[in-house]
Amino acid sequence: MAEWRRHRKQIQEVGELFKEEKAVAKYLRFICPTKSTNRMGHRVDYFIVSKAVDCLLDSKLAKAKKGEEALFTIQESIVDYCNRLLKQQFFH
Q1: pLDDT band at 61, cuts 50/70/90?
Q2: Which member of 38, 55, 67, 71 has the lowest number of beta carbons within 10 Å of its beta carbon?
Q3: Could you report the per-residue pLDDT of 11-41, keeping only the tens digit for each?
Q4: Nearest 5°: phi and psi at 47?
Q5: Are 88 and 17 in contact (CB under 8 A)?
Q6: What is the annotated localization of this protein (predicted)?
Q7: What counts of helices (H) and strands (E) characterise the chain?
Q8: pTM (2 d.p.)
Q9: Cα–Cα distance for residue pair 78/69, rounded to 1 Å
Q10: Can you give the pLDDT at residue 41?
């Protein structure tokens, strides 16, 4: 029972995702090329980081609109952003 409480506390620490983070995650999920495999009896979809970086650099998120700043400008900014999504347990 204590494990359940610890797990519940971890879920609450993640917090709400911002709108742009949801948009980036959705873009990666549906646009970035993925592969499938079986791992420990479960079907797992995964993507290659270099293809995800290229996909995000080519997206509309990397292009600035009038009066706004682009979300991604260089590869390092994409890596930092993906690390933030990883810390929020959006993917493993």
Answers
A1: confident
A2: 67
A3: 444 454 588 888 888 888 899 998 999 999 9
A4: -130, 160
A5: yes
A6: Endoplasmic reticulum membrane
A7: 4, 2
A8: 0.67
A9: 15
A10: 92
